[in-house]
Amino acid sequence: MTPTLYGPRFWFVTAAALLVAAVTFSLGQWQLSRAAQKEALQSAIESQGSLTALDNPALLAMQNLTDAVHRPATLSGVWRSGHTVFLDNRPMDGKTGFVVVTPLALAGSPQVILVQRGWVPRNFTDRTRLPDIPTPPGLVTVSGRIAPPPSKLYEFKGAESGRIRQNMDLPAFAGEIALPLLPVSMLQTGAASEGLLRDWAAPNLGVEKHYGYAFQWFGLCALVVFLYFWFQIISPLRLKRLKQTQERPTP
After folding, report:
1. Largest CA distance in the chain
2. Who contacts 190 (Cβ-Cβ below 8 Å, separation ≥6)?
3. 98 and 87 in contact (C-beta within 8 Å)?
């Protein structure tokens, strides 16, 4: 039975199709705007990376230390090796191990910065056994880039204390070790040394993901429009024309 054109069903389907098309098109536009925002952020990160390296006085002179994130730095100080912590379940090059973090007391200042020194594999035979990480005594110079505090993973209760930890809360850790930690950390870069690898992954903001989602939403919008025109307009008109042809008397 051919559906009646411009009847109640036609207008109901039309309204539903317009709503779905508008929503999916808006979601596609929103994903494009998110991609543009992250591209701008990626450009800002790259711009930070091209600036001259900060030294101790330049870093400490900054009013807002978060403005230094992703910027190169060459800092001098003394390791506080007694407060070294091993952050567990941290991948590098497809393997899971520890990221070793040690506070560095900055020379000429009472301030301390937490340094993510590098990555080391863990012993899966004895999971409580820690690798021996040589830590040079005396004044050292460390090169890297300023970074946010170590990223947080899901953790079970009790995994936030001891030398092996899942995560590290910077203010809580500063109170625990009684040292004035800066609100940022440093990601040490350079060749492997002291048994530590430093093949840090470049910041990935997931711009491609947003373009992929936008393509899916726009594709769904186009599909809804196509199906609407096909089943609500083209197909009924074809059926109507076919019926008229069949009903036409034969000469």
Report:
1. 110
2. 143, 144, 198
3. yes
